[in-house]
Amino acid sequence: MKVKRSERLIDMTYYLLENPHTLIPLTLFAKRYNSAKSSISEDLTIAKNTFAKRGLGFLETVPGAAGGVRYIPKMEKEAVEAFIQELCDELNHSKRLLPGGYVYLSDMLGEPKWLRKIGRAIASLYVDKEVDSVMTVATKGVPIAQAVASYLNVPFVIVRRDSKVTEGSTVSINYVSGSSSDRVEKMELSRRSLEMGSKVVIVDDFLKGGGTVNGMISLIEEFNSEVVGATVIAENIFKGERSVSDYTSLLKVDKVHTQERTIEVVPGDFIDKL
After folding, report:
1. Residue 234: which domain range?
2. Residues 49 and 133 both lie in one domain
3. Which residues belong to any copy of the Bacterial purine repressor N-terminal domain (predicted)?
């Protein structure tokens, strides 16, 4: 049965949004809606223009018999800048100041509305790069990695500090925490979690000395894989030398006044990297 154009446009848009970075042949839509390819092409032009106008990303068309259309979710730089400022306004409250100058983020990382925007913003930085997987450590970085991976449409892997019997054989490394205590800690990853030669994006919630991120970099090297980039939600004030330098941050804790219990959070260098 032939599908009405209005219904076809809604269903097609939903299908594209649910399958980002996936090349979809026009024949799939033609059979799905019992419509000619020319009609499908016209519908895709409408969707493409609307996505671009609303800042939802863009549609990439691939010509030829093996071609099709691919939806690339991406936030415009102006939208990312406005969102990061919104994050700063939300975090610039004394109630969020924790011992050690850390910022309380748990409530925001449990809110879908914040996670979706964070995931979309970080994924926007890597849309033009080849990514096979997103990695994080088993703490509050897990929901961030899941959000980023959903927009890049790749798996996410979780590094643990202690292995589970259900993980099977693992690869483990020792790393220096990077904090003032310089503790030596251990992290592990299941051998089945990451393919050899993968291209990996690292994400985490907070960075101070950089030990955790540096540990994940070392673990990725054990899999003969490549680090595409590392992004954290917020970086803290750190007087010493960080064990990692090549990273981006959405936010930066600029000033902490312990006695007055005030904190100042400003945009990080993420916007400059877009």
Report:
1. 77-273
2. no
3. 4-73
